[in-house]
Amino acid sequence: MISNSLFRHWDRIQIDAVKKLKSVRNYLWINTGIYLGLFFIEYSLSKVSHSQMLFADALNNLSGIFSTGLLMTGIYIASKTRDDDLLGAPISVAEQKSLGPRIQQSRFQFENIYTLISGVLMIAIALNIDYSGFKSILSHHQVVPNSLGAMGAIISFALLLVSAFLTKHGQKKLNDATLDAAAKDIFSDVLTSLVAFITICGSILIKQSWLDGVTSILLGFYILYSGLSILKKSSLDLVGYFDPKLEQSYRETIEGFPEVQRVIFIRARYDGNLIMLDVVIQIDKRMTVTDIYKLSQLITNIMQQRFGIVETNVMVYPSNLA
Question: With b meaning 16 or more CB within 10 Å and e meaning fewer, what string describes 7-22?
């Protein structure tokens, strides 16, 4: 009976999480389409306008395509709930019928894996931008960009601004961390395109090509920093790291329940974008099974409402054993 209850509880979590993932994927499809269109526009115009900065911005948008595409692939794998394999590896017949927490949580981890790969690609693109920028500055055949470069940058600025607002709207609607990060990333690209526009206009006005090259190098360093940050975060998520300050907040909240004498053990972890929590608490040995069950349910509900934790596993120790 308890086992069936646990699986029903997980089924509810799984259905909600998968539904959310599919909605997130729809927003990311829009972003991918915008990034793809902008890459071709800016890349083409960078060649005819001789703008190194616009070329760098085009590659920045290419990194957006890779990162969003990889993230969508990870989300697609994470959102599959009925299958006979996990990325080609067979799943037992028993787990195919239920597909409980173990398999689905494994699927959720693919979101982190593909995010890590996108960070590596961003680093590679950043190094290419910086190489091209330095090569342009050291070249004796530098050309001042023309107005076509400025036009490409302002088109990128306008379309990315629309994309950022759409993604932020989706984030507020779904309360999703992936869309929140995507919205921030797109907004940084909006500012990048604005800087590209200002830089190209400045180069045209002062008739100096070095400004275009120097700014493209700075953009390359910015993309490099972003890629390293993504690589660091996704790596930490994969190895089970969790912010100790946030974990301490969880501990203090649970210790605030009158029935909880103390928290013996607590561990939070990420499964993809989902936060899971394991906690061991000490209680009065005179509490009944019914009271313990009600307390566990109350802790689970409060942690979900206050912190968005989708699963809180509560283990209890009576005061005479702890």
Answer: eeebbebbeebbebbe
